[in-house]
Write a structure and sequence with these properties.
242 residues, Rossmann fold, two-stranded antiparallel sheet, disordered N terminus, alpha/beta, 6 helices
Length: 242
Amino acid sequence: MKKAIHLNKVFLLALLILCSTGYAQEESNVIVFSKTAGYRHQSIETGVEALKKLGIDNNFLVDATEDANELTKNLEKYKVVIFLSTTGTIFNKNQQKAFKKYIKNGGGFVGIHAAADTEYDWAWYGKLIGAYFLSHPKQQNAVIHVMNHDHKATSFLSNEWQKFDEWYNYKQISPNINVLMTLDETSYSGGENGENHPISWFHEYEGGRIFYTGLGHTKESYADKTFLKHILGGIHYAMKKN
């Protein structure tokens, strides 16, 4: 009997610890989806591990999968879905339907880098992500202009941020996105969007909150505390966390 009471106390203590850290709150769960049907970024595995650590450090659970069926069958478990450099056609029709339902029920979405190089034949996704990948020049340093300091993903940044990355040009840019940062095309070679070259944005779409950043091509990005804080702000926005 004493042994049973002791075990119950241990269980209750463990439960209290989980609750205090936030890990018992299923609604705070996040899943990273990194399926590729086209180009595969070498930074994906590094990014997955960095996002898992970001969750540990900020009291939310992070799962990861590249199985579209597993993802779409378990969406109700997650507050936010992160597309980490997905490419190509990653969902079949039934999976698309499940993901649309998730967003319409208030699910959060974070797209990183090649999430814009995904699902070109699915117009709904194009409106969700806010723009599609068009092209990119060689990797190089560029100046980013921060246009909005009121958002969690950019509030800690100065007016300009210099960074080395692979800089996307975009097509079919939605007029409904709220631009957080733009690229200064005079600071690097190969820009094709002109003076208004968005590189990170957010918007609300059919019930869900959407955040996208074009940064994150390189492995080194996922050791960059400033970049990870930028991502964390996007996750918190998508979670509807004030």
